[in-house]
Amino acid sequence: MHLARFPRIFLAHLPTPLERLDRLDRELGGPEIWIKRDDCTGLSTGGNKTRKLEFLMAEALAEGADMVMTQGATQSNHARQTAAFAARLGMKCHLLLEDRTGSNDPDYTANGNVLLDHLHGATTETRPGGLDMNRELEMSAEAFRREGRRVYTIPGGGSNPTGALGYVNCAFELVGQANDRGLRIDHIVTATGSAGTQAGLVVGLKAINSGIPVLGVGVRAPKPKQEENVFVLAQRTAEKLGCPGVVRREDVVADTGYVGEGYGLPRADTIEAIRMFAELEGILLDPVYSGKGAAGLIDYCRKGRFGKGERIVFIHTGGAAALFGYPGAFA
Ligand SMILES: *Cc1c(COP(=O)(O)O)cnc(C)c1O
Predict the structure, then answer these.
(1) What is d(CA 227, CA 319) in angstroms, rounded to the nearest whole number?
(2) Where does residue 289 rank: exposed (0-12), middle (13-18), buried (19+ CB within 10 A)?
(3) pLDDT tens digits, residue range 181-234?
(4) What distance, in Å, lies between the first and last C-alpha atoms of the chain?
(5) Which is the most buried residue in 109, 220, 228, 262, by most CB within 10 A?
(6) What is the 165 CA–ligand 1 centroid distance (Å)?
(7) Burial call 166-196: b when 16+ CB within 10 Å, e when fewer
(8) Which of 44, 76, 140, 194 is catalytic?
(9) How far is the CA of 289 from the centre of ligand 1 (A)?
(10) Residue 30: band (very low, low, confident or very high) from pLDDT cuts 50, 70, 90
(11) Are the beta carbons of 77 and 97 closer than 8 angstroms?
(12) Helices 161-180, 196-207: inter-axial angle, 10-degree rounding
């Protein structure tokens, strides 16, 4: 499997560090916890979307686009990283932001990622919650095309087979780091939303026969839907890479027991996880994704579902810019 066959713009700061969280694992008294710092990908406060955008934005340029568009929730980290990547390439960027939480807090609607979207020169439009946002995106793109723009549209979260290549790449990078230091990984844990991160990881890990299972901690959809989304995208990604069938249905596992009331609504264990990482390790999580992923990780350790002596790698997917959209959650 040869990722260099696909167009890519090398912009992320890679490899991201793989670090031991020894104060956290002493506190939890169970497995050895490691963290893969994909919050440090280097673009406008970092995050997991930058790996996907390396492949997506290269495809946009190859197709002759002069403008990119994508969609996400109001505090979308993906929208912010797309805006920054477009700025770097001198492309226009237009974002559709969906009000999924119903919050009128001015910090939620204008601070955090929204502030950064505009700093990077992106224009934005809002939509009420519950619409088919990828359809809204295509309709809005048509209007720009009628004005003569060459628009490349990126689906929510950058989650299509092209974007998922970024996490196939992460799987190779992580296994390489583990091999170099003799670290036998027993489990990988990551937050899972639009599915591209988990799908890419599973494809990469299976394609090199690593034997490492991935647990996706859901942030929105119920378990059957989330696993189906990841599995379908993993199959399409494997086909694109020329290894169809490498992922089986049972390789895709999501636990959606940490979502709470819904997308973008942190619950008590989300906030506890954010505080623990901040106070014990000096690491910032976020209230929408990595805080819920870490709540799952902590709970699995406390319940003994990850056993003593096992080595767990938590993929830190970023998102700390969204903290500034949620000051009330920490009051
Ligand atoms: C988008 C995002 C995720 C989820 O990744 P998907 O590829 O959408 O499943 C996790 N964490 C953060 C911080 C994100 O922005």
Answers:
(1) 22
(2) buried
(3) 999 999 999 999 999 999 999 999 999 999 999 999 999 999 999 999 999 999
(4) 49
(5) 220
(6) 15
(7) bbbbbbbbbbebbeeeebebbbbbbbbbbbb
(8) 76
(9) 6
(10) confident
(11) no
(12) 50
